[in-house]
Amino acid sequence: MATATVDLGPVPDLWNRRHLLGLEDLSAEEITLILDKAEQFKQVISTGDRKIPLLAGKTCVNLFFENSTRTRNSFALAARRLGADTLDFSASTSSLSKGETFIDTAKNIEAMGIDLVVVRHRTPGTPHLLAQNLRCGVINAGDGAHEHPTQGLLDIMTIRQRKGRIDGLTVALVGDIAHSRTARSNIWGLQKLGAHVIVCGPSTLVSPQWTDLGVEYSYHLDDILPRVDVLNLLRIQFERQTTRPFPSVREYAHLYAMDRHRLAKTKSDILILAPGPINRGVEVTPEVADGPYSAILEQVTNGVAVRMAVIWLLLGKKSRSTA
Ligand code: CP
Fold first, then answer.
1. Domain segments of the chain as ranges
2. Is 276 in the pocket of ligand 1 (CB under 6 A)?
3. Considering the domain 28-147+301-315 in this protein, what is its CATH number?
4. Which of 30, 83, 102, 163 could form a cystine bridge with 56, CB 3.0-4.6 A?
5. What does the pLDDT look like over 234-258, one tens digit per residue?
């Protein structure tokens, strides 16, 4: 792996946070700073210099209590590309099974000399609990149906790259809004940057209460298609549902799956996103997911750059004024 000598300067004074717990807390300026730094990292990586050792001597741990392909691996890769050491905690083989508490487990891991904990847990608020109990930094990698801030950031980065702006765009989040942490992070992040957000899905997964967050809601995808710039297709999270929110998967797909017939009703420059994993044939058909309007794999590429930016902002050298 080639090593790049990159001078990003110190972490800007605008950033003085120890944790990234959600996009609800961040200002538009802080979100823009993360996106700008992610662009810089992406640019350096794309030139072939895969390693930028700005965080040599730092250690990050992945503390995942739910399965993950994209988030877990891209956080590990991001930390390694910055020269940090990484530790991968496995909940199923840990001493949690012997009765050790969650906080004791986290404190023991931290005592090994950890600088940053990346945590995913099914219970909303878990990253906030860790932030209160640990001395090191904490990143929320998804807490139940609450927030998934780096997913929101990489979605917004992909939109900004493709559209050149966020302000003034109409973005529809379609699908299982009720169980989606990605929905909340997208809503807070996109609205702060000036986008209009629509949440769309069956009435069992989208309620009028979502308007409290400043968004529009719709039960009819076909009605909103002609006026949206971006469609973010959220997975139906069968694993979080206690009862089926619709009579059959086939009926859901009939009303909400993005297929070529629905694509024909959209603007000619529609952008299709999906956080992944996708249920092919449920939220989106393969021809749309793999087609020219889709940026689904680009989102994954951007995820590494976004996570590099967030880790660097939390652990990087501060300027003398904030040190
Ligand atoms: N989008 C996302 O969070 O994917 P993983 O569950 O695979 O991390």
1. 28-147+301-315, 149-299
2. yes
3. 3.40.50.1370
4. 83
5. 998 877 777 788 878 899 999 999 9
